[in-house]
């Protein structure tokens, strides 16, 4: 008997009006193996992985193309979804049916929204609740002005343009919602934008964060009420009232029950150990439960987790632990996926001309009103310059995940049609695409640190105080820093003012903090690393009472913007030189113990932006110790200055000459001369400068000048390697005047922030115990290295304390070449 082959239908899709119904047979067995001519995309897991891969790849490609135009990553991530959506490749349905079929939409959207809940929970954990409830006066004024003035303007503009909308369209009702959404100033959006622009701890960035936090407090409250009313419309006045009361009850329960329970458990946790995995899992379970409660009472599922994150203590240990567990997955996978889904849902072919100009007019008026609402109190209250106030207004106009989350919610609730949703998403893209490059063009954080006066050791008066700003990352940096301060020679004639900044990476919180510690008082009893560092500096101050003053700060910020705090304090305290540790630390056996590339990036930013001279301290060998060298009873501390020529070498020479004033320090200035360049103008000027320092140190037998003639870079390198073990500390300039001696050596430079010679001295291949201080003289406003002023007139030189005709006694000058040594007493 012959039978006809039967056709088995596993899935059927029906489209009715704006709805798609997918019927799937759960008993069917799908062949998804390619070896049996199956389709792997029939598997939900394979389909999800392909969707995530495609979205990520296209997003990265678009981001590479838009970065030169100054665009934010949020624009590229939304565009990546639009590429696969009905606005581009999915317009004919071919790509959509294969790569983003209706049956797979639920899975990727559920995953993205689930991840969004944890992303916003992490954002709220970083937020400082105190800054929201008790912001500064200026931040509160700007927050109030933005919220109420923008709300009023947006409402009036929607009311005005609503009469131009046809009665049969839904835009007449949704226009007011779109207008009022322009009032939102999402803190997560502002924080992400400032982080991307490296403006997180600038003055404008701090003010924008505080204002956005306070504005968010008002916005979250209003949104919660609106959602309660919208979710219970048609049920009379009792149900909306009950929804609002239940939302208030949820907040009260989180604040007065959940928060004390978390603090109680946190206080019982061991102080010297990381938090247990059980504790962390309990917090994540609490996020899920509170999200469920939010949905149950008619609120959005992120409402409860958002409030929970606000009451969780930010920073270490809990905030840091929570962020470290979720940061990578939520920020790099879930967050971009949610943005892409918003673009995937956008269909620009649904947009009509009439709706376009109406919504565009409302958005433009609302953004203009918000800009004015920011600029007016900013300029009036704190006399902020117009340019900076305008930039602050642009920052507050930024849009992103908060607005998109609201638009997606309204679309799912059928409040927004496809046309209105597309216009709303396009408004986010257009505003962000305009605001971000404008901010980059109008504001450069380094402008506020541009030097207009000389702030160097070389050009300072001899009796002036030496103001040293030191950056300290951890306890290991303290001995080397204190030893360097000891040899800097604090005296009655020239005291030392130390400005110490403890540098802490910002983790587990969103708002950077710069804390000024009390300059006086007893030692701190806390066992934290910061307290121990501050105590060590206070002990150094006590041992040099009357000659040294120490003021301590703590900067908590990302490494990528930490240089802003250092430069800001340097300007305020009129620092002469900034000294920061090298990003590599040496172990006891001479090998490299640890490397931190983020610190290297911070050091490079300091070199580019500092308002004074900069020194990078390579702590290796003799400077590492538990006690300052002056307390060990050593007779002399051997310091060398490598002098080739240039402004940076002149600054190193000036610092070394100051050290030579100490009776515990002997200084050797090793000057390298190029063979055959005896009669050049540059050599004469450099000789005049060194002679002036020798005259200033007349009678000081611990000041020695050694001149060595070399023929090329190889001879220079060999000579330096021979001398390094003779000294405890070597000072060298970062850059030198153009010379054939260093041109060839630049090919092997691994760390450009140290310069060619500094990189050679810090190389692990150079087995020595000498520490190195690489110095860059202050850059002036042009952004190029300032050249030291050495004129042909001897009266224009730096030091005038010694008469030019006074005979020199006791200082040494040694001239060397590779074949003979001529040593004479000058």
Automatic annotation (TrEMBL):
InterPro entries xref list: Cation/H_exchanger_TM (IPR006153), CHX17_2nd (IPR057291), CHX17_C (IPR057290), CPA2_transporter (IPR050794), Na+/solute_symporter_sf (IPR038770)
Keywords linked to the UniProt accession: Ion transport, Membrane, Potassium, Potassium transport, Transmembrane, Transmembrane helix, Transport
Membrane spanning stretches: 106-127, 139-162, 207-229, 241-266, 278-303, 355-377, 389-409, 421-443
Domain Cation/H+ exchanger transmembrane: from-to ranges: 56-438
Pfam families membership: CHX17_2nd (PF23256), CHX17_C (PF23259), Na_H_Exchanger (PF00999)
Cation/H(+) antiporter C-terminal domain sequence ranges: 639-778
A GO term, aspect molecular function: antiporter activity
The keyword Lipid metabolism appears for this protein: no
Any one GO BP annotation for this protein: proton transmembrane transport
Domain of life the protein comes from: Eukaryota
Compartments (UniProt record): Membrane
Cation/H(+) antiporter central domain segment(s): 496-622
Entry membrane topology: Multi-pass membrane protein
Keyword Magnesium tagged: no
One GO cellular component, as annotated: membrane
Similarity comment: family membership: Belongs to the monovalent cation:proton antiporter 2 (CPA2) transporter (TC 2.A.37) family. CHX (TC 2.A.37.4) subfamily.
Protein name per the record: Cation/H(+) antiporter 15-like
Lineage: Eukaryota, Viridiplantae, Streptophyta, Embryophyta, Tracheophyta
């Amino acid at each position: 008997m012959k039978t006809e082959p039967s056709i088995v239908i596993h899935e059927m899709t029906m489209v009715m009006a704006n709805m798609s119904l997918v019927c799937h047979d759960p008993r069917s067995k799908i062949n998804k193996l390619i070896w049996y001519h199956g389709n792997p995309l029939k598997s939900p897991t394979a389909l999800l992985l392909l969707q995530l891969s495609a979205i990520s790849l296209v997003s990265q490609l678009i981001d590479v193309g838009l970065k030169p135009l100054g665009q934010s990553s949020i624009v590229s991530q939304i565009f990546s979804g639009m590429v696969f959506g009905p606005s581009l490749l999915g317009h004919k349905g071919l790509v959509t049916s294969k790569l983003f079929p209706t049956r797979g939409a639920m899975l990727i959207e559920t995953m993205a929204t689930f991840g969004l809940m944890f992303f916003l929970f992490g954002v709220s954990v970083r937020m400082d609740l105190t800054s929201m409830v008790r912001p500064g006066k200026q931040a509160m004024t700007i927050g109030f002005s933005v919220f109420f003035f923008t709300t009023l303007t947006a409402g009036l503009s929607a009311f005005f343009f609503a009469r131009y909308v046809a009665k049969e369209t839904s835009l007449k009702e949704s226009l007011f919602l779109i207008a009022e959404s322009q009032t939102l100033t999402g803190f997560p959006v502002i924080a992400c934008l400032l982080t991307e622009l490296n403006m997180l701890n600038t003055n404008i960035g701090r003010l924008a964060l505080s204002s956005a936090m306070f504005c968010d407090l008002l916005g979250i409250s209003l949104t919660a009420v609106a959602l309660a009313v919208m979710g219970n419309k048609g049920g009379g006045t009792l149900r909306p009232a009950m929804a609002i009361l239940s939302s208030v009850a949820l907040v009260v329960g989180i604040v007065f029950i959940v928060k004390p329970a978390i603090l109680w458990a946190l206080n019982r946790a061991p102080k010297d150990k990381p938090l247990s995995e059980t504790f962390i899992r309990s917090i994540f379970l609490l996020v899920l439960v509170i999200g469920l409660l939010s949905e149950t009472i008619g609120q959005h599922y992120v409402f409860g987790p958002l409030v929970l994150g606000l009451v969780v203590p930010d920073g270490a240990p809990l905030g840091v632990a929570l962020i470290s567990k979720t940061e990578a997955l939520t920020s790099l996978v879930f967050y971009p996926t949610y943005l892409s889904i918003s673009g995937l849902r956008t269909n620009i072919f649904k947009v009509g001309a009439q709706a376009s100009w109406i919504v565009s007019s409302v958005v433009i008026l609302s953004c203009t009103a918000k800009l004015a609402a920011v600029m007016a109190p900013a300029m009036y209250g704190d006399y902020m310059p117009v340019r900076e106030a305008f930039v602050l207004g642009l920052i507050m106009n930024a849009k992103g995940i908060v607005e998109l989350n609201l638009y997606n919610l309204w679309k799912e609730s059928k409040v927004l049609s496809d046309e209105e949703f597309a216009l709303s998403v396009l408004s986010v893209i257009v505003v962000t695409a305009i605001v971000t490059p404008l901010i980059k063009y109008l504001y450069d954080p380094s402008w506020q640190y541009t030097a207009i006066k000389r702030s160097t050791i070389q050009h300072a008066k001899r009796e002036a105080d030496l103001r040293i700003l030191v950056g300290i990352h951890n306890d290991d940096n303290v001995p080397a820093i204190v030893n360097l301060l000891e040899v800097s020679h604090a005296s009655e004639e020239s005291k030392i003012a130390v400005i110490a900044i403890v540098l802490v990476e910002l983790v587990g919180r969103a708002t950077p903090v710069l804390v000024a510690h009390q300059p006086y008082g007893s030692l701190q009893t806390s066992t934290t690393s910061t307290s121990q560092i501050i105590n060590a500096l206070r002990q150094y101050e006590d041992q040099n009472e009357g000659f040294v003053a120490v003021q301590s700060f703590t900067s908590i910020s990302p490494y990528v913007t930490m240089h802003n705090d250092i430069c800001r304090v340097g300007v305020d305290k009129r620092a002469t030189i900034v000294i920061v540790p090298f990003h590599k630390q040496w172990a006891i056996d001479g090998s490299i113990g640890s490397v931190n590339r983020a610190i290297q990036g911070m050091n490079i930013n300091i070199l580019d932006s500092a308002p004074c001279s900069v020194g990078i301290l390579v702590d290796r060998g003799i400077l590492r110790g538990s006690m300052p060298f002056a307390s060990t009873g050593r007779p002399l501390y051997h310091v060398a200055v490598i002098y080739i020529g240039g402004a940076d070498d002149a600054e190193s020479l000036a610092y070394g000459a100051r050290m030579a004033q100490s009776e515990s320090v002997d200084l050797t200035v090793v000057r390298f001369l190029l063979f055959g360049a005896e009669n050049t103008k540059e050599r004469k000027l450099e000789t005049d400068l060194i002679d002036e320092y020798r005259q200033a140190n007349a009678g000081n037998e611990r000041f020695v000048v050694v001149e060595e003639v070399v023929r090329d870079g190889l001879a220079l390198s060999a000579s330096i390697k021979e001398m390094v073990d003779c000294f405890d500390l070597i000072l060298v300039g970062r850059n030198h005047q153009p010379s054939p001696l260093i041109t060839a050596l630049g090919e092997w430079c691994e760390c450009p922030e140290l310069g060619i010679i500094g990189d050679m001295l810090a190389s692990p291949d150079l087995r020595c115990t000498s520490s190195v201080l690489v110095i860059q003289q202050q850059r002036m406003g042009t952004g190029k290295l300032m050249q030291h002023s050495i004129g042909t007139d001897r009266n224009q030189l730096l030091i005038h304390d010694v008469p030019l005709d006074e005979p020199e006694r006791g200082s040494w000058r040694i001239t060397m070449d590779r074949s003979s040594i001529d040593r004479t007493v000058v």
